[in-house]
Fold this sequence. Notes:
- With 179 residues, the protein is α/β, with parallel strands linked by helices.
- The protein has one domain.
- It contains 4 helices and 8 strands, in the order E-H-E-E-E-E-H-E-H-E-E-H.
Amino acid sequence: MTTTVTQKPAGVEYPLAIECATLSRLLLLCHPQATILMTRLERVLPTPSGAWRRQWAVHLTARRTERASPILFSTVLVAQAEGIGLFGRLVFPERTFQDDPQIHQRGEDLAQQCYDLLLEVLPAHPGHLVVQRDARYRLPDEWVWSVRSSLEGINIAFQQGSWTRSSITPSSPEEAQHG
Length: 179
């Protein structure tokens, strides 16, 4: 008996989406009293040399109330590490130079710090936003990970080894690393 599986395009259609370069832009485009869906994401990117790059992000999506409105989205990279095997080094939001066997936990901790701060800050936004935890509008991974939204205007910054509330925020990952 032969079983064959035919592969046909799934015919999945994605809604129109608007990529927001800053989290403040997403908030500006949201309808007053909008619901923002927020979740933490993590991915591992293998390299040809056998090394890996692990990234942690906070991903936010929102939709206006109009029927068939586009999905607004931002992906904020909150930590990135590179390594081989079980050991790695943090390369964002700060660069470390010593291999750390706990690097995975460090990345998860940084992601949770930023996530918790956003849960504090977003509901206090003038638009009286509602934040739904651990949820998102589903978009293709290529879209989600291709945007590097900044926290500019949100008053969250990486300072002294932690994500904290601040009146000064870097506008890009590069500025956070060097500034």
